[in-house]
Specification:
- Helices cover about 35% and strands about 30% of the residues.
- The protein is an alpha+beta fold.
- The chain has one domain.
- Strands 1-2-6-5-4-3 form a six-stranded antiparallel beta sheet, with helices on both faces.
- A hairpin with a 2-residue loop joins strand 1 and strand 2.
- The chain is globular.
- The chain starts with a helix and ends with a strand.
Length: about 140
């Protein structure tokens, strides 16, 4: 239930809770996707995510640091416990995801952190022209 509380708080704060749906809901991981019509400047989303982690008391991690890689690896293990994936864990895949969304003319921001024993990964993207909703995906997983 801790995954639901954390994800719910994030989605509510980003105003992406209404209409959100779980992409994966298991004992040790929750992945939720939603859309936010809340206007935010394209360039300030990284600050919004940083402030959200501060508000929640989560410790942020650099995605490409050793610690960040370990957190992503554990979160990946949680996904693999629930679905069959034939490839190896690849932290650089997040960068490739960002690049592919940017190639489709989207502005992308993401953040990684830990709150108690729960890893949190948030990725959000919006069309660079600001037309349409901001898409939000949140992954909350036990990292113990």
């Amino acid at each position: 239930m801790q995954t639901n509380k954390i994800a719910g708080k994030i989605m509510t704060t980003l105003e992406a809770f209404h209409g959100s749906r779980p992409a994966m809901d298991a004992d040790n991981i929750l992945i939720v996707r939603g859309m936010s019509r809340k206007y935010s400047n394209l360039e300030n989303m990284d600050t919004i995510l940083s402030d959200l982690f501060k508000y929640m008391g989560a410790k942020p991690y650099d995605m490409f640091s050793k610690e960040g890689g370990n957190i992503i690896g554990i979160m990946d293990e949680r996904i693999r416990e629930n679905v069959s994936i034939q490839t190896e864990t690849d932290v650089a895949g997040i960068q490739r995801l960002k690049e592919s969304l940017e190639a489709m003319n989207c502005h992308v921001d993401y953040a990684l952190g830990v709150l108690n024993d729960m890893g949190i990964f948030i990725v959000t993207w919006i069309e660079k022209g600001g037309i349409g909703p901001r898409f939000v995906e949140v992954v909350v997983a036990s990292v113990e």
